[in-house]
């Protein structure tokens, strides 16, 4: 099984899948919140325009989950509940 970690938990993915696709396939539709109002955000546009799906990948923040291809062993952290 091919996996990466999200907030320390293993998440399987299909080769060629983006991080957003793998997150949604696992049932997770939101992984960050807005600064004002703490409204949930996840993948919205799916093409890298809206920035709603931001995550941190291997320590580099501000990565759009809809554009980053999943790779085995990568460490992803979300801003869920963290005003990211």
Uncertain regions: pLDDT < 50 for 5+ in a row? none
- Main sheet characteristics: 5 strands, mixed
Based on secondary structure, the structural category is mainly beta
Which strand order spans the largest sheet, edge to edge or round the barrel?
2-1-7-5-6
Task: Write the H/E string, N to C.
Answer: EEHEEEEE
Average pLDDT figure: 92
- Give helix % range: under 10%
Give the number of helices: 1
Shape estimate: globular
Radius of gyration: 12 Å
Determine the strand fraction and express it as a percent band: 25-35%
Termini gap:
30 Å
| Assembly status | single chain
Number of beta-strand segments? 7
Please give a handful of descriptors for the protein shown.
29% strand; mainly beta; 84 residues; two-stranded antiparallel ribbon; 5-stranded mixed sheet; 7 strands; single chain
Describe this structure in words.
With 84 residues, the protein is mostly beta strands. 8% of the residues lie in helices and 29% in strands. It has 1 helix and 7 strands. Strand 5 (54-57) and strand 6 (60-64) form a beta hairpin. The chain is globular.
In short:
The protein is built from 1 helix and 7 strands.
């Amino acid at each position: 099984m091919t996996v990466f970690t999200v907030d320390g938990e293993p998440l399987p993915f299909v080769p060629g899948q983006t991080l957003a696709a793998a997150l949604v396939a696992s049932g997770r539709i939101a992984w960050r919140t807005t600064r004002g109002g703490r409204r949930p955000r996840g993948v919205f546009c799916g093409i890298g325009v809206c920035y709603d799906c931001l995550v941190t990948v291997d320590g580099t923040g501000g990565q759009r989950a809809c554009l980053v291809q999943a790779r085995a062993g990568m460490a992803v952290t979300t801003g869920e509940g963290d005003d990211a």
